[in-house]
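Q: Given only this backbone (494 positions), what sequence would you predict?
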């Protein structure tokens, strides 16, 4: 194994082969999903709506993912291929950062392979990230790049080297607000270990903090100017706890434990026996173990402070993505057969998920159960355009999943408004409204439509287009309803 003058091993052919294999795998899964359906999933469709314009904030999620997608769309237009390949890039960047962190920690080749294979045991990575995750996937990638950059900057002992972790930390916070927990935990961890604290460059730390604050300030100001969005951010976590004291704290801890199990299973089933039978002490193990404990401590303080009601496994992805690295640094990979189980099982799980992701669309495993990708929304968008003759400059759509997929059919031309994101623009003389069966019965849609057009759904003359559900021949056709709303002389619409 070759090393540079600092003692850090150089990247090997084995590193390159694993990363190339991951790239081929992720691209294959992406193209198989595109071949199975032209319909974007829920979070991807939301990004197609948000990326129509560039601004400091959009919804209760930070804007970085949308900004980058907006930039890509300036070259390609709305595209499912771009959405999925962008996700492939994030998956690859996370894996590259794992290898980079492994080198900074001076892990062996087998330890680095173990860390990469461990990712495949985390459903948030191997399933959810390839299916639909957006903000959480980007936040985890940015957080991992920040950890890599932090270790690299400490080794370099240069002020300007700290620009990397500062930029990556800003990227993490602009991807997911809860990434602040990991950013704080990394700094506290480095300060709490004497060997690392002595090598920290104080000027570099201040440079990283300044970059973080400067890059996040515009979005933070936007949040303060939009208190309703800030309220949505906290409402997702904060629940109404009538109990007080230890009872409420116990409920919060139970909710956190459920979230941890949802995120860590089935990785935990192999990791615990592997750690128990082959654990060892090393400098890398001490650092990663301290980071794990600090993340958990900061997370616990956060949970108790805000009274979080529930946790989805994906919410913990930007905070605990590094557990495969912790395990790799904490065990003797030669001392336990569980190492091979982790590596070979990880490859098998990745292949299995890669097959099931497109297969669940084309093969009705559970009868005629539909996924969102079975909905023929892109084809219905083409039908609507043919029926109308031309698409009006502004189209009101009852749900962002429908609206985002209509953009795939129509391109950049119309501005699509939805209850999820309503742009402050004046409506033209004629507006098209598109709604699903379910949304036509939803009081929330009626309220939104009245606010936009001064008309209720019952006031409009609705027509319909329909198409067969993709790969579900026994299911009834999927229907979209549409109506024209024309401006009256008094400025209202009818």
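A: Predicted residues:
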């Amino acid at each position: 194994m070759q090393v540079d003058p600092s003692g850090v091993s150089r990247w090997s052919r084995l590193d390159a082969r694993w990363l190339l294999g991951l790239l081929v795998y992720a691209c294959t899964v992406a193209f198989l999903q595109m071949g199975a359906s032209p319909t974007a999933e829920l979070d991807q469709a939301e990004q197609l709506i948000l990326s129509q314009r560039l601004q400091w904030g959009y919804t209760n999620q930070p804007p970085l993912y949308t900004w980058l997608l907006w930039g890509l769309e300036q070259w390609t237009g709305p595209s499912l291929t771009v959405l999925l390949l962008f996700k492939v890039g994030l998956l690859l960047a996370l894996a590259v950062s794992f290898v980079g962190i492994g080198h900074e920690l001076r892990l062996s080749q087998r330890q680095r392979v173990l860390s990469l294979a461990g990712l495949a045991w985390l459903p948030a990575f191997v399933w959810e990230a390839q299916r639909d995750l957006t903000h959480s996937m980007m936040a985890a990638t940015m957080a991992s790049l920040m950890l890599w950059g932090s270790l690299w900057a400490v080794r370099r002992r240069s002020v300007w080297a700290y620009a990397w972790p500062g930029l990556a930390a800003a990227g993490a916070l602009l991807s997911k607000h809860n990434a602040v927990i990991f950013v704080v935990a990394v700094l506290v961890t480095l300060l709490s270990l004497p060997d690392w604290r002595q090598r920290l460059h104080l000027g570099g730390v201040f440079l990283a903090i300044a970059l973080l604050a400067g890059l996040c300030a515009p979005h933070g100001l936007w949040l303060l100017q939009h208190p309703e969005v800030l309220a949505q951010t906290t409402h997702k976590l904060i629940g109404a706890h009538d109990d007080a004291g230890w009872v409420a704290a116990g409920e919060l801890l139970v909710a956190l434990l459920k979230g941890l199990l949802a995120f860590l299973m089935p990785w935990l089933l192999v990791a615990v026996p592997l750690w128990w039978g082959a654990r060892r002490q090393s400098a890398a193990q001490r650092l990663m173990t301290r980071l794990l404990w600090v993340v958990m401590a900061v997370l616990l303080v956060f949970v108790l402070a805000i009274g979080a009601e529930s946790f989805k496994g994906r919410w913990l992805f930007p905070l605990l993505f590094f557990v495969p690295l912790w395990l790799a640094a904490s065990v003797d990979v030669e001392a336990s057969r569980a190492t091979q189980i982790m590596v070979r099982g990880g490859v098998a799980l990745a292949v299995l998920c890669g097959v099931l992701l497109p297969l669940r669309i084309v093969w009705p495993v559970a009868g005629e159960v539909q996924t969102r990708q079975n909905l023929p929304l892109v084809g219905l968008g083409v039908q609507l355009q043919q029926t109308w003759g031309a698409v009006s400059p502004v189209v009101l759509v009852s749900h962002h999943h429908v609206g985002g997929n209509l953009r795939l059919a129509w391109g950049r031309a119309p501005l699509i408004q939805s209850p999820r994101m309503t742009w402050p623009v004046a409506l033209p003389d004629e507006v098209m409204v598109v709604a699903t069966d379910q949304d036509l019965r939803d009081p929330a849609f009626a309220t939104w439509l009245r606010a936009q057009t001064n008309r209720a759904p019952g006031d409009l003359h609705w027509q319909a287009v329909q198409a067969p559900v993709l790969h579900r021949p026994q299911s009834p056709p999927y229907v979209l309803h549409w109506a024209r709303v024309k401006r009256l002389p008094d400025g209202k619409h009818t």
